[in-house]
Amino acid sequence: MPKKELETRELKDIEIFSAGTWNGDIYTEADIESLVSAYEKTKEKVKPFLKLGHNNDQQLLQADGLPAAGWISNLRKEGEKLLADFVGIPKSIYDLMKAGSYRTVSSEIYWNFGLDGEKYPYLLKAVALLGADIPAVSSLKDIMS
Question: If you ran DSSP here, which 8-state letter would residue 97 be given?
Answer without folding.
Answer: H
